[in-house]
Amino acid sequence: MALLSVQHLKKYYATQRAVDDISFDIAPGSIFGLLGPNGAGKSTLLRMITGIFYADSGNILFNGEPFDSGRHIGEIGYMPEERGLYKKMKIGEQAVYLAQLRGLSKSEAEFRSKQWFKRLDMTTWWNKKVEDLSKGMSQKLQFVTTVIHNPKLLILDEPFSGLDPVNANVLKDEIFRLAQEGTTIIFSTHRMEQVEEICDQIILVNQGKKILDGSVKQVKQDFKENLFSLTLSNPDAPLPADIQVLKQEQNKLMFHLNENVPANQVLLHYINQGNNILAFEEILPSLNDIFIRLVQGTPAAREFVA
């Protein structure tokens, strides 16, 4: 059973179809990428999933039950891209306060907060005020306040914004750990390389419509173009008939292979010549390439590329 099932969800405004008949399922313990250019409908989708907005039509099922914000919101953690912290408040007090709003006792809230502060190397900042924090440290605090009540569904909107590479890796490790422990995660970002590294499944929306969904591996396979890279000891040897060399850099060839021709046939051709094969790989398109291909030409796509 899917932890979250979105069925034919629609949300229309006077001049815009923000979400136009979108459906998808998210398996328990998976990391699900929600992708799309600005204005595609991602934020509206997230706000309906968290009960901030009501859908005009369609259904949301949470763990097999019709979503009820009063009953299910305590099982969701939502970390929006915009900061939602009290600048004049000490960060330790703030973490404890927000945890109590999630239903934890004061003692449990303090215990969990200190655990998370230690895990994310924030202990020395306990008595600092939010206004004294860097953008990256504020992001780590916001992450702590989002996960402190152990939600079943964790929604992260641009979670690595403002983080240096070291702290981004720390947060990434925690995301993987939470997923391994059974937390279901929706990950929304513009950074396609992060999606490829982190997500199991993705959905791509554009202008309110779903235009792609599936596993990251399958999506990349579906959009492959029979491109390969081959590094040889003698790259100037005669070419097999079924390849078209697109680029050559020293002893490395990038080529297109005709459909229905097995790659092993190319390798056998060079082996029979006595040519040493130093490296060989299929070149799959990046999610960024696929994204641009699918939404190219729309105003949102041009903004994304810029």
TrEMBL record:
InterPro entries: AAA+_ATPase (IPR003593), ABC_transporter-like_ATP-bd (IPR003439), ABC_transporter-like_CS (IPR017871), ABC_transporter_ATP-binding (IPR050763), DrrA1/2-like_C (IPR025302), P-loop_NTPase (IPR027417). The keyword Transport applies. Keywords: ATP-binding, Nodulation, Nucleotide-binding, Transport. Coiled coil: none annotated. Pfam families: ABC_tran, DrrA1-3_C. GO terms for molecular function: ATP binding; ATP hydrolysis activity. Residues 4-232 form the ABC transporter domain. Belongs to the ABC transporter superfamily. This is ABC-2 type transport system ATP-binding protein. The lineage of its organism: Bacteria, Pseudomonadati, Bacteroidota, Chitinophagia, Chitinophagales.
